[in-house]
Amino acid sequence: MTREEIFELMGKNPAFFLATVEGDQPRVRGMLLYRADEEGIVFHTAASKDLYSQVLKNPKAELCFNGGGTQIRVTGELEIVEDNNLKDEICEHPTRKFLKPWREGGELKDFYENFVVFRLRKGTAVTWTIEKNFAPKEPIQL
Length: 142
Prior knowledge:
single chain, Pnp Oxidase, Chain A, 5 helices, 9 strands, globular
């Protein structure tokens, strides 16, 4: 697969699994992709979530996407994006309507401080299909 095909598959299948580490214990949870392109893989959480404190201690992560019989695993380091314009863009996106009440006066007092956007840039992807189950992995730089 090419980089572009990988980004396309991610965009068409935005639910993914994210693995982080807490101490010596792996932690995996489902996430919702915001965007994946040459600028990086972008998604978000709240600062109150365990995910946030885990990434602060160890930014290494692995993301796993599935679609059309293909699995894509991406490894790399997460960075926190401090861009309120991007946070507003995400909040206004039709797939993120659930964020608007939080931004407009929900339980947390400072939306911009508590809404955390992550980006994984320059990750390494490997793909898997049943047809290539035993083939050597071919890493693809994103």
